[in-house]
Amino acid sequence: MDAAPDSSIDGLAPLERQVVDFFVDGVRVLGLPRSIGEIYGLLFISRSPLALDDLVQRLGISKGSASQGLRMLKSLGAVREASGNGNGERRTYYEPAVELKRLVGGFIREQIRPHLESGQSKIHRLAESARAEDDPEQRKFLEERMERLEQWMRSGGRVLPILQKLLGQ
Amino acid sequence: MDAAPDSSIDGLAPLERQVVDFFVDGVRVLGLPRSIGEIYGLLFISRSPLALDDLVQRLGISKGSASQGLRMLKSLGAVREASGNGNGERRTYYEPAVELKRLVGGFIREQIRPHLESGQSKIHRLAESARAEDDPEQRKFLEERMERLEQWMRSGGRVLPILQKLLGQ
DNA sequence: GTTGATGTTCATTTTTATTTGAACAATCCG
DNA sequence: CGGATTGTTCAAATAAAAATGAACATCAAC
Fold first, then answer.
1. Does domain A14-96 bear CATH number 3.30.70.260?
2. Residue B5 three-state SS
3. Which of A94, A130, B139, B151 is 20 to 30 A from B36, alpha carbon to alpha carbon?
């Protein structure tokens, strides 16, 4: 109906749109859904904290997406509730965590460690099956491969904390 | 028609099935398609190199999937052509690369670096837009955020080689 | 307790990614 | 050549993932 101050078609100024797209690409590399990138991106480029409804309106996504996206971002430690809405406001506002250390830490904790751990126990079971093999040659081969897998997992376990430390600067 | 030595329903022995599933899970974490995990997994647990047709038959996947999957695995440096089919054989056989260093190196080179680099140039352009902002307060905010992004990218660039070195043991 | 505002859940729809398969090379050999 | 074998490509089909939206909670203020 009328020209908004700095945007109109989708509620985002050109720079905001570019930043949001940047994060959309970014989270796809990490295997996270598009909406996660949109939400985090908009929070990242916003000077003041935003509420769920702001995200819905400015990004043009559904309430469901916004709610689930915020939940995941919270679990990753990538957004926090903004302090200071103690009096009249019931609505909660969110702001992004911008420290790389924190983001990487959350991602490792939520997305990598669980897989690493379930992987380790699966390999343990596989190694047992391998030791039960009859043919000695085949058994030797299987044990060697299982040992290789265990080696990979150990490397992974060793590297993660170092990675976190290196990124915390 | 008849009972195969160690398998029949899907061409995979139980242990093989488990290993293949393990890799299917593994590659999903990395954002790669299922067939990649199936192919690499079967090669990993096979004592002798396999040809495209072996993969098709034992995994029950299409020739197209096998061909594309092998192409990607080759580009990642995760499989190599087995030497020693110089005389009668035209068919090429594949074996897995099992050194973690090599696998991680290929993944970084093919999947991470390109994104990191395109990300860096996008940020560069964003930072320019930010410097063109009129309102000084807003400009200061945007420049700070863009500086943060550049910081992330620099950290990423610094950490990758270290990561490769740490995993090469 | 009623109303209104905020947020969540989850079955369904939509979108995106992957697989298929048939047509098309390429290569070898008689 | 001509036919058999091996492998690739890519439009269409299928499967998997994500988004939607309406019904359902929660809570605060009156």
1. no
2. coil
3. A130
pLDDT of residue B31: 93
Give the pLDDT score at A5. Answer: 43
**HSE toward the beta carbon, residue B103, CA cutoff 13 A:** 19
Q: Smallest CA–CA separation between A126 and chain B, in Å? A: 7
State residue A9's pLDDT score: 43
Q: Is B83 left (phi over 0), alpha (psi -120 to 50) or beta?
A: beta
Q: Which nucleotides of chain D are near protein (any atom < 7 Å from a CB)?
A: 5-11, 17-23, 27-29
Q: What is the pTM of this model?
A: 0.91
Residues 6+ apart with CB under 8 A from B140: none
Residues of chain A with pLDDT under 50: 1-9
Beta strands B79-81 and B93-96 are: antiparallel
Count CB-CB contacts under 10 A for residue A4.
Answer: 10
Position A80, amino acid: R
